[in-house]
Write a structure and sequence with these properties.
single chain, 277 residues, alpha+beta, 434 Repressor (Amino-terminal Domain), Umud Fragment, subunit A, 8-stranded mixed sheet, two-stranded antiparallel sheet, 6 helices
């Protein structure tokens, strides 16, 4: 191995770099202010003042004062992940991302390295092979009748058609989809949208679901309330326990909650997971 020599005069200067992954130690790096030293060195190598660096960071969406930059370089504070990436882009720091060994190049050598890199890029011979993303499609059952987000509409459980959708657009726990008809769930769910539904026979208050009441389908928020004094007897079971009254609530405040009575034929179809525009 070549013998180590100390740099003297105008000889090659050691570039402060990040240690290989195998021996990297966060506490030691912080104590040695490795990040701050590297940022300071790269800024000065590019002839940037702190004010100039501040303005460049501002163009990258990072708001910071000169005092803050000083603290970074002195190791009193450290940039967060997004600020650090912006700094690396501005200062042309690449080796920190892959944990390269320390580099022994002076400014002239680094400029030649940059020029060689640009020549390789310009030649077009060393471009990375781009991986083309191929979307996978799956078929999902969609109700042929819309579920009402208004005054109620019949939902035929047996009337479904199979439609292809991008797999990425369908939640993994979705069992089927239904179309929205009406505006009572605006501004969250819109007329004509498809909502994905997970089959369930019970819901918790506050959950959005699809329901059937007396043969009509509804898309509403499930909730419960204390029965009125006049109807309390209808909600007391054979054990004398008083049950809450189910109500279906709309997001659109122009629609009053729909109250479900014990005489209604009511059941939960499922929980709404998300929508597909």
């Amino acid at each position: 191995m070549p013998s180590e020599k100390k740099s003297r005069g105008t000889g090659p200067a050691k570039i402060v770099s990040f240690r290989p992954n195998a021996v990297w130690n966060a506490a030691e790096e912080r104590t040695g202010n490795i990040i701050g030293q590297r940022l300071s060195m790269e800024r000065k190598r590019r002839g940037l003042t702190l004010e100039a660096l501040r303005e460049l960071l501002q163009n990258h969406g990072v708001e910071i004062q000169i005092q803050g930059l000083n603290k970074w370089e002195k190791g009193l504070t450290v940039p967060n992940a997004y600020q650090f990436i912006a700094l690396c882009r501005i200062l042309g720091i690449e080796d920190c991302m892959v944990g390269m060994e320390p580099v022994l190049l002076n400014d002239t050598g680094l400029r030649k390295l940059d020029e060689y890199k640009m020549d390789l890029i310009a030649s077009g011979r060393y471009r990375p092979t781009s991986e083309r993303y191929t979307e996978t499609y799956i078929e999902m059952p969609i109700s042929t009748l819309a579920v009402s987000a208004g005054v109620g509409e019949f939902l035929d459980e047996g009337g479904f058609e199979m439609i292809r959708f991008p797999k990425s657009a369908v939640p993994g726990n979705a069992d089927f989809g239904v179309r929205v008809n009406g505006d009572s769930m605006e501004p969250v769910y819109h007329d004509g949208q498809i909502v994905w539904v997970e089959k369930r026979d019970t819901l918790q208050p506050g959950e959005v679901g699809v329901f059937i009441c007396n043969g009509e389908g509804y898309l509403k928020v499930y909730d419960q309330q204390e029965p009125s004094e006049e109807s309390k007897d209808d909600y007391v079971d054979s054990y004398g326990i008083l049950h809450q009254q189910v109500i279906l609530v709309s997001y659109n405040k122009l629609y009053s909650p729909k109250q479900i009575s014990p005489s209604d034929t009511f059941f939960v179809v499922g929980r709404v997971i998300s929508s597909f525009n």
